[in-house]
Request: fold
Amino acid sequence: MLGDTAVCVHPTDERYMHLVGKSVKIPLNDRIIPIIADALLADKEKGTGAVKVTPAHDPNDYACYTRNPEIGVINILNPDGTLNEHGGEWEGVDRLEVRGKVVERMNELGHYEGVEDRVIPLKHSDRSKTPVEPYLSDQWFVRMGDDEDGKPGLAQKAVDAVEDGRVRFFPSRYKKTYTDWLAEKRDWCISRQLWWGHRIPVWSKTFNNSQKAEETVKEFSSRWDDYCWRISESDPSTVLMCIDHQDEDIMEAVEKMLKTEGYVQDPDVLDTWFSSALWPHATLGWPDLERNPPLDEEELAKQTQSLSTLAPGPSTENKVLPYFYPGSVLITSRDIITLWVARMVLTGLYNMDDVPFQHVHVHPKILDGFGQTMSKSKGNGVDPVDLIEKYGADAIRFTIASFAGETQDVRLPISYECPHCGEMIAPKQYKVATSTLVVPSTMKGDFPVPQGAPKPTLVCSNKKCKQESQFTTPLYDPDEGAAVAKMVSERFEYGRNFCNKFWNAARFAMMNLVESDNGAGYTPDEVTEDQLQLEDRWILSRLSTVASEMDEYLGRYQFDAATRAVRDFTWNEFCDWYLEMIKPRLRDAKSRAVAQRVLLSVLDSLIRLLQPFTPFICEELWQRLKEIAPERALPVSSPGDSPGAKLTTQSVADACINASWPTIPSSWQDEALEKRFARLQDTIVAVRNVRAIYNIPPGTSIKLLMRTAADVAGDMESVASQFENLAKAVLEAAGADVERPIGAASFSLGDADGYIPLEGLIDTAEELERQKKKLAEVEKHIKGAESKLNNEKFVNNAKEEVVNGVRETLANQQSQRERIVEIIRDLS
RNA sequence: GGUCGCAUAGUUCAGUUGGUUAGAACGCCUGUUUUACACACAGGAGGUCUCCGGUUCGAGUCCGGAUGUGACCA
Reply:
């Protein structure tokens, strides 16, 4: 009320329209203020419909003042929250106290009608939790708008850099966040009233009159023409001076001079984002363009190797800056696209006349299991060090990379780990006062903890344990020496299991690369096409496909897809099929050498592909393999060098981290071969399925007959040993005229039928049931395909290849149906 | 209030320009100490893709709306 400068009503409010233009008196200090009409501020429905206007201490009222500048502004607060001279008798008293006093005084004066409770949005300081008092103050701004002559200003230039593709966002939708915000071109307030930060390099002195100030500017501008001297816009008798010099001695001398002349440095520091915006070039020595950035001796020695092209040692030119600026990619979180990314671009354009980076990759944010941002104050975060101890650094990195897709956020449900038995205890949300915390679901005790009372504990839910422990929470520090339940997330088992799998696969490979009872150690030699077995050609085809997929995904920053591709290949193809299939060859002296060479070649590529995600394991394996095979058969880097050879002998880098990224020839990809291989896999799975259904012990060998066309039969026969190896089934016969034996289990694939004689073991009723189920499935699909093909519109409108695809499927399904029907007839 | 997301199996997530039977991991069920790996292997169950409407021969996918949920900005 003490700072009010008007009373505002709605311009269409009939109750008050006649009062607009008149004045009222503030009873507290007898100040006269006008009654004004403002449609944006006043709301006829709320309260009396008339609202007091306090421009200095309310953003909405300030906006009203800018529309009605004649009402003026009165700032009634001191920086410490007490009232200033406009507070009258309450000058120097804290605002909180004055609020009560004002009500009392109004009552005394007979103007008190009552107090009404009302919920209002009130911002609080994040640090002190005190309500924020809006307050008018002088601040430093950087102008974002265009120049007066219409040339693009800082904001527009930064928008242009993204619009014309000099800077690209991944995922691209974040471009909008950036350009929308910059397009507002709001001036950037860069001053902060804090202790920590770059101090604003502006000095000032207030003279007795403006003439003296002007003379000073003239005189000093010619004497110190490196620096910027100005008359303050808000006070014509104040001189401002901006100091900046990269030479510390000169800086010191200038500061000394300023102090003797009576100049004072601005007490504010720069906005943290202003300082951060300098990062891409300031870290590379800017603004010193004469010398490379300072490095300590040891560091310099290391750097000179990789930076040898940059003329190490003393130089008269900063060569590091042009070498590293602009950078290639900035990886960041979406909540600082405006604060940091935009500021880096516009600052880089201003200082360096170039963008700071070409790509901006915005990664998802990790939320807890309840969908909340992880934060210390909620107590729902995980400590990476705890995770690394529990799961391993590579496992964490691999798992995190597998989260990093194009979505906005990912959930990471956390649990508490009982320090006594390792049991995982689920969390729950828990309300304390106004905040929601995360605590163990089995928490014993309550918050807040009364003085001297025991701290709440986690009670282990494992019936064999039931012990109590303290837990990580923002509400108390654990007692010294107390058992503390760590917060972990079982989702990291994904990465841990994979790392373990990969490690064991490599271990298996190494066991078979050295001399052992199984045969000789690794010998490097080239591998030619005709030495390759079906499984070799298959794994090399798959490797080539996966490597090219990885290139594509990494180029788009789709780390989740990249980890999935390499994991699936490693686990489901390399381990589950390839390693199993070559085991017999590794035991056979005649075929061992070639199998070793192909195996190591694939493993070598795999280690390189996995290096970005599991660097520690990869380096360890690399070093061990280098002992076994410093030279090895690897994909021919430039075809034509060694015609006929698929793999040639090459030496490898000292360390995995220095090894080149694998380039697998795309000509290795063989779709037809992969299809043939898939049929073999399907057959083996079908045989295993029969074994599982009839509970045939793993040691028992079974017979297999395949009825199929001659070419497929030939394929089957050529890999007959693998049926034995992978399904313990002996291929008795394969061909078009194979008959289904009596008392056999059957399975039907797209273009082949399999029969497994199980005399005595077979349960006819159960087998019939199984076949009928399968028939129903096939018929469902046939029906679907038929209804499509009977639909004229589909046949006429759909792409030809789609229609043909459906026809092909239908034909396959129909022939499969026939065969199942046959089997059912035999069984019945 | 404005803008940008998300909603698919019990859970956490894939699903590229609309087009064969919607996939994975974990969990669950059955079996296996098979000499790399039980943090494993083999097999299996589990989804009317949040709801309503539209476009289309055809929608998890495109459009509109609703509901829930998240972020940024005001």
User: Anything to note?
Assistant: The mean pLDDT of chain A is 87. The two ends of chain A are 97 Å apart (CA to CA). The first helix of chain A runs from residue 59 to 67. Residues 71 and 511 of chain A are 88 Å apart (CA to CA).
